[in-house]
């Protein structure tokens, strides 16, 4: 384990260089040992061939020449014709000379023989045999072959046999020495072979161990890196990161660690953007609906909270004060709402509380406690702000289980609380769901607006005294490409209910201003009226759009009259009053419809 850790502290490149260098060193050692061993064997083989074999050859040649001379001598002893003996003498002299030279070479190399004393004995036997051999030759010529034969057998032949035995013994000894040397060379070759095989096996084992260690130092961290990458991909950022060495794998693990931390930071940031309100740090609308989905089947209530006259505070004191006020409201709501309940900011000055496991009485108790907590003055930027809030409530599963439906019911209850100035209102039984045909028409309204399927009809207003047309009322109609004219009673209520009226009304007023300006240029001056719904009256952008449209068409504001209902005025009196004041300031006529 410590060795593996030590290896991981060294770069992979360095590990590979060291490993290859070590293997090359072992291979070089194998080559050096092989070269040295084969050089030694080759030198010994040369010595065996050049020296020992030569000495054995000299001994054999001396023995053969001695035998040859002895045979010729025997022929001389058996030859009575002198002429024939002359020829034999010449042949015998050659054999004797060759034997003499061989013996001299043996004596000269006596130190090289295994037993130099045998060479000395051979010299004495050679001298004695030479003397007796000469005596036998002289008797042949002096006394005749027959007498000389007796001398040969009694004296010369024993000396010859002793000499032959000595040379044979010397040759045999040299052959034995050669055999011993050959066996030694064979053993040396086997030893060298075993040494080379051992070092080769050692090199293979070393390479295998180094390869396994390097592979382990690479594959194990890579496996950890792959597991870490899988955990990052699955969203688990708590997995322990293995200790990173100083090698390339360590750099990769540190890069993965850095990537994980940055991914976690970005995901946390994205999560906060997606699920947390940046101003109050409360859960936002998306998170609230996800939390609501986890409580399906439970009993509880939704409390929709709205700050009264918040827009007036925001405009009078500035957005910074308005933001600080919202943060203060959020802190007070946190203190009131229980740990088992859910609190979120939906948008603007609207908050929502989901109460879990409560009945109607408990719901009202919590609502009263929230109003009491928020009624206490809040100090913002050194200014004391007295607040009033309105709360609309819906219950689940009594009023339904769909969060959108429950929110709509709570919103309707909130508007009732504002309109009646009661502060708290319960959701009323919902109206029947629209027919499938009406839902289809609602889905087609946006496409009708984009493709200009809406039309404006003008209903004239006549002065009875002068019997002249003094004005007109603009009526929107929907000419469906398949259904023909669609009754306003079918789509206007649902446009208001879904909020799509916010897109229809600007189109209608823009069209009315253009038509009125065109009629005025044609010489017909009259005031044209258009209806505003509750959503329109509370839309600050609509006021700006109307003023710009009048200026663009160069139409005096007195030729436009906007009709509103009393209920629209009561929905949010403060906001409605502010928008009406801006319209009146620019000279736009206002009228109460259905009064």
Tell me what the structure shows:
The strands form 3 sheets. Strands 8, 9, 10, 11, 12 and 13 form a 6-stranded mixed β-sheet that branches. The chain has helices at 2-8, 12-77, 82-108, 116-142, 145-233, 248-275, 285-293, 310-317, 319-336, 360-375, 403-420, 436-450, 488-498, 501-521, 534-537, 540-553, 566-571, 573-585, and strands at 300-307, 342-347, 350-356, 378-380, 383-385, 389-396, 424-426, 454-463, 468-480, 484-486, 527-531, 560-565, 589-593. The protein is rod-shaped. The chain contains 18 helices and 13 strands. By secondary structure, it is α/β, with parallel strands linked by helices. It is 67% helix and 13% strand. The two termini are 92 Å apart. The model has no long low-confidence stretch (mean pLDDT 79).
Distance between the termini: 92 Å
Helices and strands: which structural class? Answer: alpha/beta
The tally of beta strands, per DSSP, is 13
Using only CA atoms, what is the Rg?
63 Å
Mean pLDDT: 79
Spans of 5+ residues with little confidence (pLDDT < 50)? none
Oligomer: single chain
SS strand fraction: 5-15%
Q: Give the CA-based shape.
A: rod-shaped
Output the number of helix runs.
18
For the sheet with most strands, the description reads: 6 strands, mixed
Helix content: 55-70%
Supply database-style keywords.
595 residues; six-stranded mixed β-sheet; 18 helices
Write the layout of secondary structure elements.
Blueprint: H1 2-8, H2 12-77, H3 82-108, H4 116-142, H5 145-233, H6 248-275, H7 285-293, E1 300-307, H8 310-317, H9 319-336, E2 342-347, E3 350-356, H10 360-375, E4 378-380, E5 383-385, E6 389-396, H11 403-420, E7 424-426, H12 436-450, E8 454-463, E9 468-480, E10 484-486, H13 488-498, H14 501-521, E11 527-531, H15 534-537, H16 540-553, E12 560-565, H17 566-571, H18 573-585, E13 589-593
Parallel strand pairs: 6-7, 9-11, 11-12, 12-13
Antiparallel strand pairs: 1-3, 1-6, 2-3, 4-5, 8-9, 9-10
Helix pairs in contact: 1-5, 2-3, 2-5, 4-5, 5-6, 8-9, 9-10, 12-13, 14-16
């Amino acid at each position: 384990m410590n060795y593996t850790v030590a290896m991981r502290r060294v770069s992979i490149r360095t590990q590979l260089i060291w490993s290859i260098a070590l293997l090359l060193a072992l291979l070089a050692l194998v080559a050096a040992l092989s070269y040295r061993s084969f050089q030694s064997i080759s030198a010994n083989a040369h010595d065996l061939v050049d020296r020992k074999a030569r000495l054995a050859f000299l001994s054999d040649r001396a023995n053969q020449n001695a035998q040859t001379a002895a045979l010729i001598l025997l022929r001389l002893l058996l030859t009575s014709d002198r002429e024939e003996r002359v020829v034999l003498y010449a042949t015998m002299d050659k054999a004797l000379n060759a034997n003499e030279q061989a013996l001299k070479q043996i004596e000269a190399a006596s130190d090289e023989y295994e037993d130099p004393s045998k060479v000395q004995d051979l010299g004495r036997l050679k001298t004695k045999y030479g003397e007796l051999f000469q005596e036998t030759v002289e008797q042949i010529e002096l006394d005749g072959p027959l007498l000389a034969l007796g001398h040969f057998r009694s004296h010369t032949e024993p000396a010859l046999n002793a000499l032959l035995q000595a040379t044979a013994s010397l040759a045999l000894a040299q052959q034995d020495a050669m055999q011993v040397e050959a066996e030694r060379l064979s053993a040396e070759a086997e030893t060298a072979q075993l040494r080379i095989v051992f070092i080769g096996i050692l090199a293979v084992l070393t390479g295998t161990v180094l390869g396994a260690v390097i592979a382990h130092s690479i594959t194990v961290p890579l496996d950890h890196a792959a597991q870490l990458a899988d955990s990052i991909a699955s969203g688990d950022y708590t997995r322990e990161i293995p200790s990173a060495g100083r090698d390339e794998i360590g750099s990769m693990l540190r890069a993965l660690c850095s990537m994980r931390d940055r991914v976690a930071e970005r995901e946390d940031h994205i999560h906060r953007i997606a699920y947390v309100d940046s101003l109050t740090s409360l859960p936002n609308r998306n998170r609230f609906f996800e939390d609501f989905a986890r409580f399906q089947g439970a009993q509880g209530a939704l409390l929709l909270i709205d700050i009264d006259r918040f827009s007036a505070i925001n405009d009078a004191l500035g957005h910074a004060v308005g933001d600080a006020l919202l943060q203060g409201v959020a802190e007070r709501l946190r203190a009131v709402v229980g740990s088992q309940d859910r609190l979120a900011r939906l948008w603007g000055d609207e908050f929502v509380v989901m109460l879990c496991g409560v009945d109607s009485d408990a719901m009202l108790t919590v609502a009263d406690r929230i109003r009491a907590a928020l009624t206490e003055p809040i100090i913002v930027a050194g200014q004391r702000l007295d607040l009033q809030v309105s709360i609309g409530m819906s219950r689940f599963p009594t009023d339904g289980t769909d969060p959108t439906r429950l929110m709509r019911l709570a919103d309707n209850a909130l508007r009732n609380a504002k309109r009646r100035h009661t502060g708290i209102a319960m959701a009323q039984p919902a109206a029947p769901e629209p027919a499938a045909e009406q839902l289809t028409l609602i889905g087609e309204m946006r496409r009708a607006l984009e493709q200009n399927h809406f039309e404006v009809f003008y209903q004239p207003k006549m002065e009875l005294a002068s019997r002249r047309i003094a004005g007109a009322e603009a009526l929107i109609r929907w000419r469906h490409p398949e259904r023909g004219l669609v009754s306003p009673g079918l789509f206007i209520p649902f446009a208001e209910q879904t909020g799509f009226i916010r897109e229809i009304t600007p189109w209608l007023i823009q069209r009315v201003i253009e038509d009125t300006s065109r009629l005025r240029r044609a010489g017909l001056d009259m005031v044209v009226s258009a209806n505003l719904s509750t959503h329109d009256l509370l839309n600050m952008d609509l006021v700006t759009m109307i003023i710009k449209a009048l200026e663009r068409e160069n139409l005096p504001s007195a030729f436009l009259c906007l009709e509103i209902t009393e209920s629209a005025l009561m929905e949010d009196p403060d906001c409605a009053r502010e928008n009406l004041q801006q319209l009146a300031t620019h000279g736009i006529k206002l009228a109460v419809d259905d009064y």
